[in-house]
Amino acid sequence: MGAVLSPLDGAGLRTDAVVARISAAIGLGVITDGEQLPSEIDLANQLGVSTMTLREALAVLREQGLVHTKRGRGGGSFVRSSAEAVNTRSLSRLQQLSVEELRDIGDEHLAVAGTAAMLAARRGVAADFARLRALAQRLADSDDAVQNRRADSRFQIEVAVCSQSARLTRAEVNLQAELSALVWLPQVGIQSPERAGRHLALSMAIAGEDEVEARALAEERSATDVRRLIALRMELIRQ
Which pick of 2, 39, 118, 131 has the fewest CB atoms within 10 Å? Predict the structure, then answer.
């Protein structure tokens, strides 16, 4: 929660940035369906923005169907997000991205994920390895599309946490917010057992302190994801 809803750095339009950050928290499962968001004052303070900016962002999120607001006693803003709604928004988002933009995002994730995995193998401890295995197993045991996506994202963020780099962790959180829902579009064709197998292999490389193998596995996964997204984007162009 702290990593996702951390203060904004001031880049870009503030309202858009708040929308993106809250959408990320919902998409990554940090705030779950039906859960109430913090009060406007608390959430604005967390993100380092004015309450006016936050209210503008909440209005956008309501239009997108991500939150709904209740008035009166027991009121507030609550998360409302289904797999169908997420997929619809993600497909629309993919159509807005050019192949060049997808490649750029992929290049950034390749660098972040590979370096985080390498450092996790160098710096990780036993408790880290146990968390990684548990997250990989959660993905292997799940047959729910939303839970699969969230378990996948949580694993990749946890690898960054194991790297003991705050900057890499923030970068991975931001990239997961941007990529996760796209990568798990049904049209991309990711299979959770195969994905879980990749994660288990990576967790073993990290636990074995094999920096070269850990980096290679993380980079291979990232590159494969972007190739699939670019292929889907090209297919959408032809339609």
Answer: 2
Determine the structural domain holding residue 72 and report its residue range: 14-81
User: Same domain, yes or no, for 165 and 66?
Assistant: no
If one counts the domains in the chain, the total is 2
The encoded tokens of residue 125 equal 């401890």
Q: Enter the tokens of residue 94.
A: 């993919």
- Are both 71 and 107 inside the same structural domain? no
Give 12's DSSP letter.
S
Q: What is the pLDDT of residues 159-184, one digit of tens each?
A: 999 999 999 998 998 888 889 889 99
What would you report as the CA-atom Rg of the chain, rounded to the nearest whole angstrom? Answer: 18
To 5 degrees, how large is the angle CA 117–CA 119–CA 120?
60
Which among 131, 144, 142, 132 is positioned nearest to 199, based on CA atoms?
Answer: 132
| Per-residue pLDDT tens digits for 67-82 | 888 887 778 899 887 6
What pTM was estimated for this model as a whole? 0.81
DSSP 9: -
